[in-house]
């Protein structure tokens, strides 16, 4: 199976776009961080370390302390990737 190019992109390269989109919708950077922590189980310090290290998405999710079991309820497309396909793993 060929992996989507997002897997090799760093989380840090996409993160500012998440924040910008959230702010356009009246949300905050803190809320974006909260969602990422909810999804992955990372602490704020761990999240910041991965952003600083330029960790790619594949590694970021593979090393996540505890993916939230409710992640399968997330629906939609992010960066051309259907979330229902990848978040059930």
- Class by alpha and beta content: mainly alpha
Q: What is the domain tally? A: 1
Radius of gyration, whole Å: 13 Å
What's the N-to-C terminus distance? 15 Å
Order of helices and strands: HHHHEEH
Helix content class: 40-55%
Instruction: Tell me, rounded to a whole number, the average pLDDT.
Output: 89
CATH architecture: Orthogonal Bundle
Number of β-strand runs: 2
- Identify the overall geometry: globular
Query: Proportion of β residues?
Result: under 5%
Largest sheet: 2 strands, antiparallel
Q: For the record, what is the CATH homologous superfamily label? A: uncharacterized protein sp1917 domain
What are the segments in which pLDDT stays under 50 over at least 5 consecutive residues? none
CATH topology (level 3) name: Helicase, Ruva Protein, domain 3
Oligomer: single chain
**Biggest β-sheet: strands ordered side by side in the sheet:** 1-2
- Assign the CATH class: Mainly Alpha
Tell me briefly what this model is:
This protein is mainly alpha-helical and 89 residues long. The chain has helices at residues 11-24, 29-40, 44-53, 57-62, 83-86; strands spanning 77-78, 81-82.
3D structure, described in words:
This is DUF2200 domain-containing protein. InterPro entries: SP1917_dom_sf, UCP033199. The protein is mainly alpha-helical and 89 residues long. It has a single domain (5-86), classed as Orthogonal Bundle (Helicase, Ruva Protein, domain 3). It contains 5 helices and 2 strands, in the order H-H-H-H-E-E-H. It has a two-stranded antiparallel sheet. Strand 1 (77-78) and strand 2 form a beta hairpin. The protein is globular.
């Amino acid at each position: 199976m060929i992996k989507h190019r997002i897997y090799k992109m760093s989380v840090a390269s996409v993160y500012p776009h998440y924040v910008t989109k959230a702010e356009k919708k009246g949300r905050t950077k803190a809320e974006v961080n909260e969602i990422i922590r909810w999804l992955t189980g990372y602490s704020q310090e761990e999240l910041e370390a991965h952003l600083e290290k330029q960790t790619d998405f594949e590694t970021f999710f593979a090393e996540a302390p505890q993916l939230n079991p409710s992640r399968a309820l997330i629906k939609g497309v992010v960066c051309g990737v259907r979330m229902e396909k990848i978040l059930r793993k």
